[in-house]
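Hi L.,

As promised, DNA replication protein:
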Amino acid sequence: MIDRDTKRLRKQAERDRRVEEIYQKDKKLYEIDQALRLTGIQLLQLALGKISLQEQEALSKKRSQLSEEREKRLKALGLDQKLYEVQWDCPQCHDRGWIDFGVKCTCLIQEEINTAFAQSGLTEEMKDQTFESFDLTWYKEQRDGLALAQKMDKVLALCRNFAREVIAGKRQKDLLFYGAVGTGKTHLSSAIANAVLAEGKSVVYRTISQIITTIYEAKFDFQNQGRQPEVLKGLRQADLVIIDDLGTEKTTEFVVQELFELINDRQRMGKPLLISTNMALRDLPSRYSMRTADRLITRSICIQFEGMSIRQLKAEK
């Protein structure tokens, strides 16, 4: 809102400069406007009882004459009354962001959505990966294609429902996607993120390496220590956190501990997670400890992605 106040002042200053430039070119228009301001001030004095009704009538008549004279002058200069108006980006709220007390303008809602998309971590390609663009045809063309496509149709419906639940703020199980590279995990993860973001909710979409790096820098990088509360709060309180490529990072004791803390905190707060990995579920305990695997597997809807790489099939096509 501070940015919006600054923007409003800038817009008003632009209007003042625009009018001043016209005044520099046409002194007559300046004189008419000055006379109009003076009559306006004098008429205001009526409310204070400082002028008579007779004087008011004379001032009102003079003001009408001046207004007509200004209109003619503007027409002669090829201008109109919009010269005096501030050119707001949003005429509905005059760039305030609020139409009425407690009622957000559509421009502010859209701005919040755009900001959420920018901060989510989604790439431009991922922003195009939606539920509508998820093509089941690629599964039908594979071995046992009909059964695979039917399964993925059910997965698609489940993911749509998961997104709806996140948007509604309902407590639910997490999602755990696992399976081979290129089988649709990233597309459906992006589709869920896009659906949630479009409703003005907050999403953090990062690879496990990016998540761990962010936590490490927030906690131990001297230059970033002031960001620790903000960064950790964002990871724990975002409406949805999506962790991609689990298992591709260098697994250390720090990684195992921080992953457990993040999963535990979000589950405790009823905040949903979506985790995607190429690993088999049976390999999770040995890599991330039994307690972390237990939190992931028993409190998630685990979906196995099967078949050939869609990316490879598209490239071959």
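The two ends are 50 Å apart (CA to CA).

Thanks again for sending the construct details.

K.
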